[in-house]
Write a structure and sequence with these properties.
The chain is mostly beta strands. It has 2 helices and 12 strands; from the N terminus they run βββββαβββββββα. It has a 6-stranded antiparallel beta barrel. Strands 10-9-8-7-12-11 form a 6-stranded mixed beta sheet.
């Protein structure tokens, strides 16, 4: 499985028992959705390796307690600590309305209600407290905060996001 065909689910955070169980932190609002997985890809040495799950259940609402096949002791679990977990993109639950996954809107046109087309979404910067749309208009990069109040419509059919940005925000980039 190629990493490009997968989404980041979380990482193995801690060992849980002497039997090789681990606690995985899941990067999701609904960890329970992933409670009954049969398998997951674990990133080891920059390769995605399938691991089959014998048993899993929620642990303190934020973690998934997992018992993998062939991971039967603390030493085997120790080797997995810090490893990222991935699943195929096809396993993502479908989102509707103005909810979206970051990867799904890359390449969408960004249209402002006042200014019209302001460019293409080339990425999402989520390294700060507020996630930002990275929009390219020619060779000008425009950063727009990803705020619910700014997002008018996610038009999947026409690959477009309609925004209502405050006056001056986008103009700042275009008029400099």
């Amino acid at each position: 499985m190629r990493k490009e065909d997968c989404f980041y689910l979380g990482k193995i955070a801690k060992k849980f028992s002497y039997k090789g169980e681990v606690l995985a932190w899941l990067d999701t609002d609904d960890p329970g959705f992933f409670e009954n997985m049969e398998s997951v890809f674990v990133e080891l040495n920059n390769h995605l390796v399938p691991f089959f799950i014998m048993e899993s259940r929620l642990h303190k609402n934020d973690f998934l307690r997992i018992r993998f096949e062939d991971v039967e002791d603390e030493a085997a679990a120790e080797r997995l600590l810090g490893s990222a977990l991935y699943l195929p993109v096809t396993m993502l639950p479908k989102l509707e309305g103005n909810k979206f996954y970051f990867h799904e809107i890359i390449g969408f046109d960004a249209e402002d209600e006042r200014l019209g087309n302001i460019g293409k979404i080339v990425g999402i910067n989520d390294n700060s407290a507020q996630a930002l749309f990275e929009i390219m208009k020619g060779d000008i990069e425009i950063l727009v905060p990803m705020i619910d109040d700014f997002i008018v419509k996610v038009d999947r059919e026409n690959k477009k996001i309609v925004l209502n940005t405050p006056e001056g925000l986008v103009d700042l980039y275009l008029n400099s």
